[in-house]
Amino acid sequence: MNSENAFKVAIVGDAGVGKSSYIKKHFAPEFDWQYLQTEGYEVTRWSQTMTTCHVEIDLWDVSGSRSKLSERQKWLAGSDAAIIMVDLAQPTSFENVIRWHEELLLANPSGLPVVVCTWKPLQKGKLLNVDPETLLWLGETENVQFYDIAADISRFDQPILYIIRKLLNDPSAEFWFPYTVSDEDIEMHD
């Protein structure tokens, strides 16, 4: 990416938490309801005009399967920011947030803004109430934000907006809608 406001955002989390569906539903041209587990990583290039500038973001959907740490470190290196996805139906995905955060910092030792984000809503009446205080380290970690979008899907844009504001160092930046992505902007890698 050659643009002044071009960024790499890694999206990580356990297998099956909804990383790919979050990206494809909100940043890709068409959503495919068929679940295919990501092998390796998949990059979706997303361009958006903001109220203050234009940004280009490569969203790196990194496989949550047990790939080798050394492989993931290569994929995560050079990230400008990250989203750690968790699934309300998978309590272990919350427990693994700390591991994912450590891996991100191992690959990016100078630090980066991180969002911990719930995504997959449970069936009506079975939604768990998620309190970010349950992730005690959040309050002790700089540059980490929590969004429960599984409970309020209208907030799907908040994690990426938070990240863009941090990367631009502009808390007033807002989106110009709609999001735009073409089929040519999606790359797959094993």
TrEMBL record:
PANTHER family: GTP-BINDING NUCLEAR PROTEIN RAN, RAN GTPASE. PROSITE patterns: RAB. Transmembrane segments: none annotated. GO terms for cellular component: cytoplasm; nucleus. GO terms for molecular function: GTP binding; GTPase activity. SMART domains: RAB, RAN. The keyword GTP-binding applies. Keywords: GTP-binding, Nucleotide-binding, Protein transport, Transport. It comes from Penicillium argentinense. The keyword Iron does not apply. This is Uncharacterized protein. GO terms for biological process: protein import into nucleus; ribosomal subunit export from nucleus. InterPro entries: P-loop_NTPase, Ran_GTPase, Small_GTPase. It comes from the Eukaryota. SUPFAM superfamilies: P-loop containing nucleoside triphosphate hydrolases.
